[in-house]
């Protein structure tokens, strides 16, 4: 069976936006698994995603406090479609990231991270795929707000797609 994934990070609700864009909620409803790499900011989004997503995997970020830190781990590990996925918020500076993450997570196939709001897709020398979906609500210095979708089946992550959201007026 092929499993569809929606990959999010750095939603910063309700600070950077009042809600997720409608396109992202549609993707939530369509996905088998929703992954969120932290900086939710408000527990309301966790509750809503938890109620709408078929399966939710999330971690807390540096801007998450209180109940978010109580309910979410700093690092999550799951297997989806035979793919070993880890989720963290911060990975440190971009320089040396691939080597650091390969050393820290030798048992993973994919590591999803956030924090920078900068989309990232690379594969390390050890075969670890690093993915950052950017942010669907706070583009910072990026040209677009973004999120990722992918599929997992038979131990392979496929169809990784960066979605660019239209600029809010």
UniProtKB/TrEMBL annotation:
Gene3D superfamilies to which the protein is assigned, alphabetical: 3.60.21.10
Family annotation (InterPro entries): Calcineurin-like_PHP_lpxH, Metallo-depent_PP-like, Phosphodiesterase_MJ0936/Vps29
Domain of life of the organism encoding this protein: Bacteria
EC numbers: 3.1.4.-
Key words, A-Z: Metal-binding
This protein's record includes keyword Cell cycle: no
Cofactor(s) needed for function: a divalent metal cation
Calcineurin-like phosphoesterase domain sequence ranges: 5-152
Database matches in NCBIfam families: yfcE (TIGR00040)
Protein name: Phosphoesterase
Organism of origin: Nocardioides oleivorans
């Amino acid at each position: 069976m092929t499993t569809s994934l929606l990959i999010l990070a750095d939603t910063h609700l309700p600070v950077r936006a009042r809600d997720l864009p409608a396109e992202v909620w549609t993707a939530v409803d369509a996905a088998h698994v929703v992954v969120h790499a932290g900086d939710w900011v408000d527990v309301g989004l966790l509750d809503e995603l938890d109620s709408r997503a078929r399966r939710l995997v999330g971690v807390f970020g540096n801007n998450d406090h209180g109940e978010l830190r109580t309910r979410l781990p700093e690092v999550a590990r799951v297997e989806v479609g035979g793919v070993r996925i880890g989720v963290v918020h911060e990975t440190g500076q971009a320089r040396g990231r691939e080597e650091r993450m390969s050393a820290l997570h030798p048992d993973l196939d994919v590591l999803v991270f956030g924090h920078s709001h900068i989309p990232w897709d690379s594969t390390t020398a050890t075969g670890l795929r690093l993915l950052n979906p950017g942010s669907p609500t706070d583009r910072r210095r990026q040209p677009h707000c973004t999120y990722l979708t992918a599929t997992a089946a038979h131990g392979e992550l496929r169809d990784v797609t960066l979605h660019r959201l239209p600029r809010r007026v």
